Amino acid sequence: MGAAAARALRNFNLENRAEREISRMKPSPAPRHPSTRSFLREQMSQHPEIKEEIDRKDDKLLSLLRDVYVDSRDPVSSLQVKDAATRQEPKELRLVKGHDFSMMNIKNIPKGKISVVEALTLLNNHKLYPETWTAEKIAEEYYLEQKDVKSLLKYFVTFEVKICPPEGKKAISSK
Predict the structure, then answer these.
(1) Are 157 and 119 contacting, i.e. CB atoms less than 8 angstroms apart?
(2) How far apart are CA 168 and CA 79, in angstroms?
(3) Buried (b) or exposed (e) across 130-165, using 16+ Cβ within 10 A?
(4) What is the DSSP-derived secondary structure letter of residue 172?
(5) Which of 47, 91, 93, 166 is the most exposed place for a label (fewest CB within 10 A)?
């Protein structure tokens, strides 16, 4: 945001400032040393073609300058670019499967995505019943890409709680 503010200040009233600078009187050249001044006068009087050469317009250079064509267009404002970037196509949504999520206010989820609860559920189902809950079935059921499901099953696991009895004591059986 700081760059935009600096640019706005730098470009403020730019045309008027440029016009004012162009119309301002140009500084006169620095005074010449007296010996140089007399030498220049002497050379100009002896060679008047030098003065003519200085004052003459070069037709070749003028024709080249006329051939130069500048085409300028205003740059696209950043607001138009942001508006174009924020417009998105409507997402395809799906309803949440199975669980009651009324506490979390989850109404629908975009296709190709899953909630945390659904991720834990499918990981647990795959762990308990790997023959039934294969990567293909999970991808089809939750509208996911198969490579994503394979990565999910490969790199993520659910926690398994194991209670180990302390050594030297017998485990208490649950009733």
Answers:
(1) no
(2) 73
(3) eeebbbeebbeebebeeebbeebbeeeeeeeeeeee
(4) P
(5) 166
pTM of the model: 0.38
DSSP H helices, 24-173, are 34-46, 48-55, 59-67, 78-86, 116-128, 135-142, 146-155
Q: Token match 């485990």: residue?
A: 171
Phi, psi of 110 (to 5 degrees): -60, 145
Residue labelled with tokens 């009087």: 45
Instruction: State the average pLDDT over residues 153-160.
Output: 84
Cβ atoms 149, 133 nearer than 8 A: no
| Backbone CA torsion sign across 43, 47, 52, 58 | negative
Comparing 62-66, 67-71, 101-105, 124-128, the range with the smallest average pLDDT is: 101-105
How many Å apart are CA 144 and CA 44, to the nearest integer? 89
For 95, the 3-state DSSP assignment is: strand
For residue 73, the Cα-to-chain-centroid distance in whole angstroms is: 23
Helix (H) or strand (E) holding 17: helix 14-23
User: How buried is 33 (Cβ within 10 angstroms: 0-12 exposed, 13-18 middle, 19+ buried)?
Assistant: exposed
With cut-offs at 50, 70 and 90, classify the pLDDT of residue 23: confident
Mean pLDDT of 71-77: 74
